[in-house]
TrEMBL record:
This is Clustered mitochondria protein homolog. It comes from Astatotilapia calliptera. It is found in: Cytoplasm; Cytoplasmic granule. Gene3D superfamilies: Hypothetical protein (hspc210) (3.30.2280.10), Tetratricopeptide repeat domain (1.25.40.10). The lineage of its organism: Eukaryota, Metazoa, Chordata, Craniata, Vertebrata. Coiled coil: none annotated.
Length: 1321
């Protein structure tokens, strides 16, 4: 919930307030709902939008879409036509509700009447009406009718809201009005006018400060007081109504105490709400006099309590002022690791909610639980032939999936908290299984020695995440007729819980009878099934899985197209399910020592193979794809090389070369499209066709060439490039038929090559990317993401750190090394914490967590645990609870942990798991040796384990008392892993938009990205990380095209969304702040720009400290803005810090360093300290001259500036001499001191943020346009000698403007950080 642009970024964004917008994640209809109110950007509540507040183009919306879609790639024309059909047919209706002004609502013919109901329930002025119908010309509309099917409904129709008879379930939801607590008071007053700018940052933000306070992370408004509307609103003790009162229409009774201390009893009846004559001790249901009969409870309360009427109205007004993005629920819950102390007020409604939801019912389906499996599978079966169908399907999949993840998380917590009865209560607690809300829960322990040969409990703990990766992969391929289970993995209180949807009928029969494909005993008995082979064959190409044969217990050959563990079960619903996908990807031989198998020399040099905790270590899907692509390039090179050797025969050249060229074009295509599995499939087919072409050639030599190349790269086909892996190689207990011995040998070699590729190619690539700053992790999560994108598992973290230590440019990797060490230590601590927590009784949880954090982070050497005294009195209690919580052992063993013991364990864990030597015996040694920050360690361990702590200042370094007490531990949250369903069409539009932008067609790119934003909104609702990326890019384009206010509006939404869906101190949120600050400056909001930059700097100090290349960019921004407001001394502190960091990480001869020198020189010039200015500018000039040559424009500019500075210095010296000589009679020439202009500062800000505007003459523009047209014509004719992408290098120009923008690749948004969109698989 932060910042309207003129506010300091604010507090707790991670809570989802219980407000009527909670339904907003529900696809398009509900996603649009909260955006009907004023959006905080000055638009009235009447202009409603369909798919989110889209760039405010309310009127020209449809036209711009039609224009934008004409320019897209040919292959997507049909898609875009379909989009026009959808978007073009929206119309506006007028809604007339009792007691409010009529308002306009934009609707789509595809929507149902129910969705308009939802909009009205979400609007502040109509939300308290829960029982109404919509009427058109006196006819009641059916809630489930599509708008297009209603006769007479057209543009401008008036829909009347008619109050109806109240039903019991609707009366209940009225009580939610009590939840209108005032959260808006936390906001500061918006002031768009230029106020007196106070530029002084807090001390802890200044360069060089070692202080890292925690309290500013969530700024609290000291003056905020909650606005109370009622004291008590609860169900009366006289409920339920007796039979004779039911016959009078009584539904229930409410007990209310108003702010004026008036105690009243209210009857909710089918006619409305009225006061009755009951008191606390006497039941008299007759209407009071006067009874104030009202249709809504809000109306009744407004009549009996003036304070309610006044405060409730004020409250609604305040809520409307908040940006909708601050109130819409996020699709997946985000938890904050810090929270302020909140007074726990009495709230009867909250109490009732808590106990009704524990029954496991979904609130919006009264009286029945949801059949999750049916919902998940039915949505996948929806048609997907055209765009509207695909949108509907993806929206349904996403909605059901986010609901399932939320329900599974709640269930997992209930299981661990002991609130769910096991289905096998007689078994030992570790072996118990649970069913809650139609979801099956199992614990991550090795039940019945199932994983004994694979690593016991360690394997049982790793299997669920491997299985989830398999589910993710198969869901991505999305083969019709093949079904996976809904799967969520929850880590909570030291336990791992797997939640799965239930296959119909599976609980009624034995597993042996159910499984008709695969093996239930790791390969001893194996069965196969024709239909499963047919379905899995379709997944084998995109997932690179080889069809292979294994032997069963009778030595019969059984054919499989997956690993043996993958089980096929046909449910009672007739669907073909696959489960246990833990070996979808091939094993990682670097962590799987096998007798008689020697790895490549490069692996052996690094100490592989290494013993791992379990034998389920698999390669990542990203690695498989990178490896296959690498092999394909190798294949092409080898084939081309051999063909060149066969050049002797002229004819063979003519026939063979085109074939190879064609294949290489296919490679380019396949590289461009690997994000989509279906396109990946077609590319693979194309590539094999292209290669086959060369084999069909008349010359047998070319056939031989391809055969040799296929053999060399390990292709499973001799006539085409086709690499696939057998996931059963090296699986214990799996035997292969003798006739496939050669093939198995090839597969073993392929696995060795893949393991070698990871360490010899991918790890160095990561380090190289970190060196050239194309990968810039800021915290543990972004480092993990960088590893995963390159297919490197986190178990290689020690190897990566060792590789960095041996790199010659080690100093330039210091920031990554520090983040890596922090990640390694906190992961080791997490492993220890997991087993530590399992032995803790629920009543001692906060004491145990605070004790662990003291041992981990506090300098206090004798951390002693405070055992809760009352828990140790009765041993009988403990015995009673033994069956409730899945743990065992001594419940007080945790209290004996000491700091030295914990750090010893961390060091040995680092050695055994990551094979990395720490050699540190205490937290202070680690901090000293590696330059870590305790606050960063606290954040990382809290985020990884789900701890939430009180936001206050902690003294970690005190040697006299521990840093944490049990009151500081506020909560412990689940850490949840699940599949993220994707919006594929929206992503295609986003990619097309990016391609257009990179070719220089900014307007068309902008329109395509707007379209992508619409489609993302359609699928995900209004809140999602990919919508965030879309808004960021749109803002960047608006800015480049000169529309600064629009850029500001879009970026503000990106910031709000990033805080809500990622967290307030996530690295992406920090980036969003920086971009928002730039656009604020361009809109003359200088004070806001500075506050945003200070906020970004504070967050960055908190998560990674000052010594990071990104800090140089941030400090350059701050320094420039301070220069603009003439705070020269402050400006110098930041700019000189930026210069130091740039010099360290980019090298003293880098162009970034030259620019830093120039910026510092300009501030010195403004201070009239010309000697210092000259010194810095000379440094910059030297770098430009050495790097670019004397003739380069930059070198010339620097040279001119040096001359100017010299003249100024000489003039100043003359003046000084004149004063010394003649005293007060001196005739002083006025000196020119240049106060920087805002335009100059903005130009410099653009340059450092990677946006360079280069003026173009009208003649240049004409030439440029002619060149573009010529190339387009050539492309259409298929004669283009150079690809259209080269236009990006020629020019990126803005239509109708005398300038062009060139994006600096190192800084431009779409190449800078791997956004979530670029990992779209």
């Amino acid at each position: 919930m932060v910042s309207k642009t003129d506010d300091i970024p604010a507090s707790v964004p991670n809570c989802n307030p219980a407000d009527p917008a909670d339904g907003a994640q529900d696809g398009k209809g509900a996603g649009k709902a909260p955006l009907k109110e004023s959006c905080g950007c000055g638009h009235s509540a009447d202009t409603a939008m369909v798919n989110g507040d889209r760039a405010h183009e309310h009127t020209e919306e449809t036209d711009s879409k039609q224009d934008g879609n004409g320019e897209a790639d040919g292959g997507e024309e049909s898609n875009e036509q379909e989009v026009i059909v959808i978007q073009d047919t929206g119309f506006t209706v007028k809604i007339q509700a009792p007691g409010t002004e009529p308002f306009d609502l934009q609707v789509s013919p595809q929507e149902m009447v129910q969705e308009i109901h939802q909009v009205l329930m979400d609007r502040e002025d109509t939300c308290h009406r829960t029982c109404f119908s919509l009427q058109l010309d006196g006819n009641v509309l059916d809630n489930f009718a599509e708008l297009k099917s209603i006769e007479g409904l057209q543009e401008g129709s008036v829909l009347k809201v008619v109050e109806g008879k109240i039903l019991k379930h609707q009366g209940l939801s009225i009580m939610m009005t009590k939840h209108f607590g005032d959260e808006t008071g936390k906001r500061k007053k918006k002031g768009s006018e230029m106020e007196q700018i106070d530029c002084t940052p807090p001390e802890h933000i200044l360069p060089g400060s070692k202080e890292r306070p925690l309290v500013p992370l969530q700024p609290q408004n000291k003056d905020w007081k909650p606005m109370q509307c009622l004291k008590v609103l609860t169900m009366s003790g006289w409920n339920p109504p007796p039979g004779n009162r039911k016959m009078h229409g009584d539904l229930m009774y409410l007990y209310i105490v108003t702010v004026e201390e008036r105690h009243v009893s209210v009857t909710a009846s089918t006619r409305g709400f009225y006061l009755n004559q009951s008191t606390t001790y006497t039941f008299n249901p007759k209407p009071a006099n006067p009874s104030f009969l009202s249709h809504s409870l809000v109306e009744l309360l407004s009549q009996i309590s003036p304070a309610f009427k006044k405060n409730f109205t004020a409250l609604q007004k305040k809520r409307v002022q908040r940006h909708p993005f601050e109130r819409i629920a996020t699709p997946f819950q985000v938890y904050s690791w810090t929270a302020p102390q909140v007074d726990h007020a009495m709230d009867c409604v909250r109490a009732e909610d808590a106990y009704t939801s524990r029954l496991g019912y979904e609130e919006h389906i009264p009286g029945q639980t949801r059949d999750w499996n049916e919902e998940l599978q039915t949505t996948r079966e929806l048609p997907r032939k055209n765009l509207p169908e695909r949108l509907l399907r993806e929206r349904a999949i996403f909605k059901v999936h986010s609901d399932f993840a939320a329900a599974a998380t709640r269930g997992a917590m209930a299981v661990i908290d002991g609130n769910v009865m096991a289905i096998n209560p007689g078994e030992e607690t570790r072996m118990q299984m649970f069913i809650w809300n139609n979801i099956f829960f199992s614990l991550g322990f090795d039940v019945r020695d199932h994983y004994r040969e694979l690593g016991g409990d360690a394997a049982a703990h790793a299997a669920p995440t491997n299985d989830l990766n398999g589910v993710r992969a198969y869901s991505g391929v999305d083969v019709e007729g093949l079904y996976t289970l809904g799967t969520v993995v929850v880590d909570y209180r030291g336990y791992r819980v797997t939640a799965q949807s239930i296959i119909p009928g599976i609980l009624e029969r034995e597993q042996e009878q159910s499984v008709i494909y695969g093996s239930i005993d790791f390969g001893k008995t194996v069965v196969s099934h024709g239909k499963y082979l047919e379905l899995l064959e379709k997944t084998s190409r995109p997932l690179k899985i080889q069809r292979h044969s294994v032997l069963n217990e009778k030595n019969d050959t059984v054919e499989l197209c997956s690993s043996v563990e993958c089980k096929g079960i046909i449910g009672n619903d007739g669907r073909h399910y696959i489960l246990d996908l833990l070996r979808t990807f091939p094993p990682d031989l670097n962590f799987l020592p096998v007798d008689g198998v020697e790895l490549s020399p490069e692996c052996q040099r690094l100490g592989f193979p290494r013993q791992h905790r379990h034998r389920l270590a698999c390669l990542r899907q990203e690695l498989i794809e990178a490896f296959v692509e690498h092999r394909y390039l190798l294949f092409m090179k080898m084939a081309a090389l051999q063909l060149m050797q066969h050049k002797a025969n002229r004819d063979s050249i003519k026939t063979d070369t085109p074939a190879i060229t064609e294949t290489s074009e296919t490679l380019a295509e396949s590289k461009a499209d690997t994000t989509q599995t279906d396109t990946a499939q077609t590319n693979a087919t194309d590539s094999s066709k292209a290669t086959d072409l060369s084999t069909d050639s008349t010359n047998p030599k070319s056939r031989e060439v391809v055969l040799n190349a296929c053999k060399a790269v390990g292709s499973i086909s001799d006539t085409a490039f086709d690499i696939r892996f057998n996931p059963d190689i090296f699986s214990p207990g799996v035997r292969f038929p003798e006739e496939s011995a050669d093939d198995i040998q090839k597969q073993k070699q392929l696995l060795k090559d893949a393991a070698a590729f990871l360490v010899s190619c991918q790890v160095p690539t990561l380090v190289k990317d970190c060196l050239d700053h194309s990968a810039l992790p800021m915290d543990g999560a972004s480092l993990t993401e960088a590893l995963h994108q390159r297919g490197i598992n986190v178990r290689y973290l020690g190897t990566v750190l060792e590789f960095m230590e041996k790199t010659p440019a080690k100093a330039q990797l210091e920031h990554i090394y520090r983040i890596g060490i922090t990640e390694l230590i906190t992961r080791c601590a997490k492993h220890i914490f997991k087993t530590y927590l399992q032995g803790v009784e629920l009543s001692a949880l906060s004491a145990a967590v605070s004790h662990f954090l003291n041992c981990f982070l506090s300098s206090f050497p004798d951390a002693v645990a405070h055992l809760p005294p009352d828990e140790l009195v009765s041993r009988r209690k403990n015995r009673k609870r033994r069956n409730r919580v899945p743990g065992g052992g001594d419940n007080t063993a945790w209290a004996s942990l000491t700091p030295s013991e914990l750090w010893k364990n961390i060091a040995s864990e680092a050695q055994s798991y990551y094979h990395f030597t720490l050699q540190c015996e205490s937290v202070d040694q680690v901090v000293e040796k590696f330059g870590l920050q305790k606050i960063t360690l606290l954040r990382e361990i809290s985020v990884k384990t789900g701890i939430q702590i009180l936001i206050k200042e902690y003294n970690f370094d005190s040697r006299h008392k521990p840093a944490f007490t049990e009151e500081d531990i506020l909560n412990i949250f689940p850490v949840v892993k699940h599949v993220n369903p994707k919006a594929t069409d929206a992503f295609h539009f986003f990619q097309s938009g990016q391609a257009k932008v990179q070719q220089g067609f900014l307007k068309e790119g902008c329109e395509l990205i707007n379209e992508a934003l619409n489609l993302f909104n359609n699928v995900y609702g209004a809140m999602h990380v990919e919508i965030c990326s879309c808004l960021r890019l749109l803002a960047r384009l608006n800015y480049i095209l000169g529309d600064h206010p629009e850029a500001l509006s879009n970026q503000q939404k990106a910031v709000l969304m990033s805080e809500r869906v990622l967290g307030i101190e996530h690295p992406n949120t920090i980036q969003e702040y920086m971009h928002l600050a730039l656009y604020c400056f361009a809109n003359n909001q200088l004070s806001t720009a500075l506050k945003l930059l200070y906020r970004a700097r504070y967050l960055m100090l908190l998560i990674c400290g000052e010594d990071h290349p990104e800090m140089a960019l941030l400090d350059s921004n701050i320094g420039l803005v301070l220069h603009g407001v003439m705070e020269y001394d402050l400006s110098l502190r930041f700019l000189e810090n930026a210069l130091t960091i740039n010099t360290k990480y980019h090298g003293p001869r880098s162009l970034k360093v030259a620019l830093s020198h120039h910026l510092v020189a300009r501030v010195y010039e403004s201070k009239a300290e010309f000697r210092s200015a000259l010194q810095h500018e000379k440094e910059g000039y030297t770098i430009y001259k050495n790097q670019m040559g004397e003739a380069h424009e930059k070198t010339k500019e620097s040279s001119e500036y040096l001359k100017y500075l010299t003249q100024q210095a000489v003039a100043l010296q003359r003046t000084m001499n004149e004063i010394y000589k003649n005293g007060s009679n001196a005739s002083i020439m006025p000196l020119k001191f240049t106060a920087p202009s805002m335009a100059t500062i903005l130009d410099q800000l653009n340059i450092i943020n990677g946006i360079i505007f280069i003026p173009l003459s009208p003649k240049d523009l004409e030439n440029l346009k002619a060149e573009v047209q010529r190339r387009q014509q050539l492309q259409e004719l298929g004669k283009s000698e150079e690809p259209a992408e080269d236009l990006a290098n020629t020019a990126i120009f803005c239509y109708g403007r005398e300038r062009r923008a060139v994006m600096d690749e190192s800084q431009s948004l779409w190449t800078r950080k791997p956004s979530s969109l670029n990992q779209h698989k």
